[in-house]
Design a protein that fits this description.
Layout lengths: L1 E6 L2 H18 L4 E4 L6 H14 L7 E4 L1 E3 L10 H8 L11 E2 L8 H13 L5 E4 L21 E4 L2 H7 L13 E4 L2 H5 L4 E5 L5 H8 L18 E6 L8
Parallel strand pairs: 1-10, 2-3, 2-6, 3-5, 6-9, 9-10
Antiparallel strand pairs: 4-8, 7-8
The chain binds fructose -6-phosphate.
Fructose -6-phosphate binds next to loops.
Length: 243
């Protein structure tokens, strides 16, 4: 079931997202957080850092699982999702490194990396899963056509996703990896609660497909129609086709 919140500014979107996150953080000392990379959750992570600094909330007992990672670039690459998470959140809170999980995209045995990650994830129940949405309707890196019951797997990125993400690679699509390791749609659906953030006009069609379209693997995010607890936080541009 979807709860949709529409805000005017990015700051309001981030604060509304943090309010949802805060309920989970307040509910127990050791929640399991499913985290995403990309532009959409950055404001939320800033609010979490501010909360840590200003209220003294400790994150030392949280456990985190990220959604995805590029294949073929090392963890210390400036655009790896491992680096992204440290630069945008982990370096500024007191979550110990051993509690942090990001898929390993730089290995000789990708199949094993997928199985190991899914097995580690299955040891826990994710209390809240943060998501963005791709302009092609992907969540994590589950591109159109991906089965709804998929678990952690390798995924070839679409041209559209690589073009969207070229902004992080000097605007050069050729530098964007072609392959990723990603939690599957089935993995994501196991989370107790989903918090999806989308801003900007280029997300309007995908947001419509997720909320109002047919449930189809052509729009992977439409699987969320089957989830019991999804909060979607949008700005007006991303909500332009639904409001
Ligand atoms: C990132 C991820 C992706 C992004 C999506 C939107 O971990 O899983 O699904 O959430 O590509 O990216 P942004 O937020 O940069 O528009």
């Amino acid at each position: 079931m979807f709860k949709v919140i529409i805000k005017d500014t990015n700051e309001e979107v981030s604060r509304a997202a943090f309010n949802v996150m805060k309920e989970v953080l307040d509910s127990k000392p050791n929640p399991v957080l499913g985290l995403a990379t990309g532009s959409s959750p950055v404001g939320l992570y800033k609010e979490m850092i501010k909360d840590h600094e200003e209220t003294g909330r400790s994150y030392k007992d949280i456990i985190t699982f990220n959604l995805d990672e590029y294949v073929g670039i090392p963890r210390d690459h400036e655009q790896s999702y491992y680096t992204f998470m440290h630069e945008n959140l982990f370096n500024y809170i007191d979550c110990p490194e051993e509690n942090i999980h990001v898929p390993e995209g730089n290995t000789d045995d990708h199949e094993k990396a997928c199985v190991d990650y899914e097995n580690a994830l299955k040891q826990h129940v994710v209390d809240i899963q943060v998501l963005g949405i791709g302009s092609d309707g992907h969540i994590a890196f589950n591109e159109p056509g991906c089965p709804f019951d998929s678990e952690t797997h390798l995924m070839e990125l679409t041209e559209q996703t690589r073009s969207d993400n070229a902004r992080f690679f000097d605007g050069d699509i050729n530098q964007v990896p072609t392959l990723s390791i990603t939690q599957g749609l089935g993995s994501i659906m196991r989370a107790k609660k989903i918090l999806l953030i989308a801003t900007g006009a280029n997300k309007a069609d995908a947001v419509w497909g997720m909320l109002k379209g047919e449930k189809t693997t052509d729009c992977p995010a439409s699987i969320l129609q089957d989830h019991a607890d999804v909060t979607v936080i949008l700005d007006r541009a991303a909500a332009s086709r639904i409001a």
